[in-house]
């Protein structure tokens, strides 16, 4: 099936939603390297030629999916943090992790973001993507600063990158290949097993504690 070229903004948005839904379904079942543009087209029920009217590369597809997942996560995070009574580093860290654990797709996208997705793009595409990240970046920093006012804006920005790096680094360690997972079942290698959620939460709480003067007293 070939789509008729969308002319109106609403039609274009509908087409992109179908493309992102297809990409999400594929990504939930496969590794990024195993997915092709043809796969996305077939999953979306559209001809490959029609797909290229909306996205030029696989990387653009999954960067768009990342943006969608990020916004969805931020929307829920904002609600949870605003409902949080007497925020402390430990409580803020718990909210951050609990909301993230509901979105394994976002975690996996963070793993491939800098290593793969941002490395095969035109100048125009990467500029457009970075432009799209400005608002969610400022929004996240504002949320953290609002929740923990003793945390400076600069410290909140640093925390954003620390948070992203921790998720991108810990997720693949905590979710090894089937081959490695089988080996780690041996008690001898138990020290190499990583429980993603608890470790991430402890680390984030520690980072927020270190950068929040007086937070220790506030949490008592």
TrEMBL record:
Keywords, sorted A to Z: DNA-binding
PROSITE patterns reported for this sequence: HTH_TETR_2
Keyword hit for DNA-binding: yes
KW DNA-binding (keyword) present: yes
Gene Ontology MF annotations: DNA-binding transcription factor activity; transcription cis-regulatory region binding
Entry-linked InterPro entries: Homeodomain-like_sf, HTH-type_TetR-like_transc_reg, HTH_TetR, TetR_C_34
DNA-binding stretch(es), residue numbering of this chain: 36-55
Transmembrane residue ranges: none
Protein name according to UniProt: HTH-type transcriptional repressor KstR2
Organism expressing this protein natively: Novipirellula galeiformis
